[in-house]
Amino acid sequence: MKKFFLIPAALTALFCTNAGAAEIRPFAGFSINYSEFDGDSESMEFVEDTLASFTVSGGLRFNRYFSAEAFYQKSGREDKINTGYYLISTGTPVSIESKVRFDAFGIDLKGYVPTSIDRLTVFGVIGLAQYKFKETLIMTELLSGQSLSEKGSEKNTGYRFGVGAEFRLTDNWSLNVAGRYVKLNNGSDDVVDDLSEVSFGVKYTF
Length: 206
What we know:
Blueprint: H1 9-19, E1 25-39, H2 41-44, E2 50-61, E3 66-75, E4 78-86, E5 93-114, E6 120-141, E7 147-168, E8 173-184, E9 192-205
Antiparallel strand pairs: 1-2, 1-9, 2-3, 3-5, 4-5, 5-6, 6-7, 7-8, 8-9
């Protein structure tokens, strides 16, 4: 399955126009994320549905209210062993081990709102990304030790929506926390439908 998306260059020009005379500042960020995904209930029974990941990002802060950033996200691999299953044909007990991980890249647009607390802002974010999930299932006969494995992957466009807060430590360094929901544009054969994430990050503005 191949899906493609385009980010219009005119979008950047729009933000630059809105920035007016404000100084445009580049930034780089790093965050740790905890993702929980949901999908086909029968298939999800065999896989670990909570993954930790990291994100590296870079972008432009156009003014105090708007920014745009590109990012790359990569998760670790999570394994899950399922027991209590039997082959229908022979009644032999088997275990089913799953291994799953994902990566993603895309762009986020953020809108900031200052608060009454000095150095603290809240923000909303919308984005578009390409997600790729890789899954491996290994079925092992517990009596003989023989195993059979199957690998699969699914690639989908994800629509990202989130809210968060950012606290500026200095003129350059800031900390942020965000919650995010990702709706995947998946097909009938795909397992994962959506993700919910919490992230904790640090950002350096040049």
